[in-house]
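Researcher: We plan to redesign the surface later, but first we want a full-length starting point. Tokens attached.
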């Protein structure tokens, strides 16, 4: 990896698939017959708050039954051992990257283990079920909602992500279908700034043509092999 200093990694649901967390668009991606695009919107939260809260309550409860897999572990090892710049940007709302030990990371789509006050914007750590109408500990309004970035809402930390992409020498996308923007556009941003681009996924993502190299397979196999290669180069 001669002249590689700064690495930006984007992960999606495929990185957690082997831990038993359902992906959004693959087989089993429907939840009680609903597409993710029909549940994860501000309109759905307004019209059917019980449905939307239950969707995330189910996924939050599932966290206690799943463990990080070899892909999460390898990315945590890279975080610990890579001497240059590194930013792991995950679209995942599970906590498996941090449970594996990653620290230089951003949850751009929010976190299951957090609640957001729709009234005052306070974010509070949250582990329990979160029924609609739960009062905010800061402002007392009955306005706590899942701290998830819905379709049409602004992802978290975009400034930091854009800054890292502008400095990236290598951009690696792992386990994401490339169906959801702005994350799906990161490869082009990185490429325009001169980064090498690599995709590790089960099958080609929607933006596959933008990658200099695509390796197809499971994250649990591909990611440890890639990390080993980076650290030993
Ligand atoms: P998707 O479900 O759209 O895509 C998962 C990708 O992972 C697909 O391309 C699969 O082929 C691939 N995949 C499945 N199993 C894999 C494995 N074992 N190893 C490697 N790859 C595998 O999930 P995302 O791209 O993450 O947003 O979806 C993006 C966003 O859409 C999510 O963050 C979520 C959803 O709406 C929010 O929750 C806000």
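Model: Full-length starting sequence:
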């Amino acid at each position: 990896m001669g002249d590689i200093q700064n690495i930006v990694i984007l992960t999606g649901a495929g990185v957690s698939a082997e831990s038993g967390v359902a992906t959004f668009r693959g087989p089993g991606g429907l939840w009680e017959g609903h597409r993710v695009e029909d549940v994860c919107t501000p309109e759905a939260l307004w019209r059917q708050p019980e449905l939307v809260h239950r969707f995330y309550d189910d996924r939050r409860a599932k966290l206690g039954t799943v463990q990080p897999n070899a892909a999460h572990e390898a990315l945590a090892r890279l975080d610990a051992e890579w001497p240059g710049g590194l930013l792991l940007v995950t679209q995942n709302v599970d906590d498996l990257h941090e449970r594996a030990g990653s620290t230089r990371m951003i949850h751009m789509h929010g976190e299951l283990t957090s609640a957001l006050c729709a009234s005052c914007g306070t974010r509070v750590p949250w582990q329990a079920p979160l029924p609609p109408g739960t009062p905010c500990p800061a402002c007392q309004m009955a306005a706590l909602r899942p701290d998830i970035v819905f379709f049409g809402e602004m992802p978290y930390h975009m400034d930091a992500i854009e800054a890292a992409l502008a400095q990236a020498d290598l951009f690696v996308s792992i386990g994401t279908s490339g169906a959801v923007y702005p994350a799906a556009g990161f490869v082009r941003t990185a490429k325009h700034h001169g980064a090498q681009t690599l995709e590790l996924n089960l099958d080609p993502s929607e933006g596959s043509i933008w990658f200099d190299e695509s390796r197809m397979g499971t994250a649990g196999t591909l990611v440890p092999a890639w990390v080993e290669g980076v650290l030993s180069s």
